[in-house]
Write a structure and sequence with these properties.
This protein is an alpha+beta fold and 498 residues long. It is 52% helix and 9% strand.
Length: 498
Amino acid sequence: MIGLTLLFILATFCLWKYGRKYLAFRAFFNKFPGEKDFSYLYGNLHKYPGPNEEGIEYDFKMCTETKYFHRIWAGAFTPVILVYHPESVRPILKSSAPKPRDTLFATPYDMGVRWLGEGLLIANGAKWARNRRLLTPAFHFDILKPYVDVYNQCTDTLVSKIHELSKSGESFDLFQPVCMSTLDVILQCAFSYKSYCQTKGKNAYTTAMMQLMILWTDRSFKPQVFNEFIYGLTSDGKKFYKLCDEVHAVAEDIIEKRRKELENQKEDEKNTNKKVKDFLDTLLTARDEDGFGLSPIEIRNEVDTFLFEGHDTTASGVTWTLYRLAQHPEYQEMVYEEVLRVLDGREQLEWSDLSKLEFTTMCIKEGLRLDTAVPFIERKLEEDTQIMEYTIPKGTLVAVQIFVLHHNPHLWDRPHDFCPERFHPDKTRTMDPFQFLPFSAGSRNCIGQNFAMNEMKITIAKVIKNFKLTLDLNKPARRFTCATMKAENGVMVFAVPR
């Protein structure tokens, strides 16, 4: 009896002690602007309508009311600071703060590890720094320049696909053929791999990848499955793991074929005549200062990461920019006239033409602002960080809301309107460097941003040269803000050959 009494007293003391700490913890973060309604299961997540148009309206409302940032609770124990103004974004992205990772309750980045592994998107610290250093040469000017031929070739196939789709006179989902085109580009440019994915019909890899992104996004709003063991017991978890195995098989097939090609070239002493190294060549042959290369699993992680990031984000940027041009025929015609002027009777765009597509580039940048390809990124603070008059303590999760930043009414006039003039060179010179971040900023900015911009210029230029696009007003696109910007019901357009 005495033992039970002592146990009860000890348990009561522990509850009192840690309860006081928790209440003080809650009280500290509740001083920051943010939702007051609180659930011990969901925190404030139940207030968020979801990664959809209603969620976009909610984010805009919060941004309008709180100019710089606000706080949410992701479950009862995890405060997250959401930043969306240059003054609050700058100290985060200029710091060395890593991607947030946890061993007990998975962060959004942890949730992607089974799929993408410790690739550049997810890795932290010395591993990330080493791999970034080894892979940077794959995006050198001399390597990017010859890719123009691949961009042209793949876009010509895309144009043929759109031409076939236009014959019925009915609207079609623009994202599907564009996604196949950008996958074709990344496979050929980064991996010298001809898949003929644009002409083979439905592609199992992109279908699996789309399902993975939906499952990943859905899980990030359900604290009850943040734990990896628990998630693995659910039907969604089992499906996610099965899909991961499917996309890994594609990556391993690509790697194995290239490895054999490199071995044959060495045996035949053809290295002296070999083309410029592509991304996969760099992965397979790179060595650090100690003479060590990437392990097989590291190579697969980077291939999975670049297969995903290298085509899906670009497909999003191309699709939504074309959507906005279809919505604004006056701008579409200005792009068309510019492309004709630059081509001057030629059929194929050249490297020297890219800098001449000035208005097309303005439209792409405005498209990336209005329908941001990567809506948000996250960091975990390694030190106390000052944001305005608030001190955010070390260890806090911070979400850089890039989509919200690009629509912040305190920064942008008419933030929901498509106005390419915003990005005229005379105006961008005075723009805050942390106001427009389609490729992030700081040391962890997108390694392939020049590759992506060049591809988007050629793809959009040649599609507009060949077709007049209009929207299907009976099927408006509803944005879906998952890992990349998608549409719940497709991006439905009509295409009329010029």
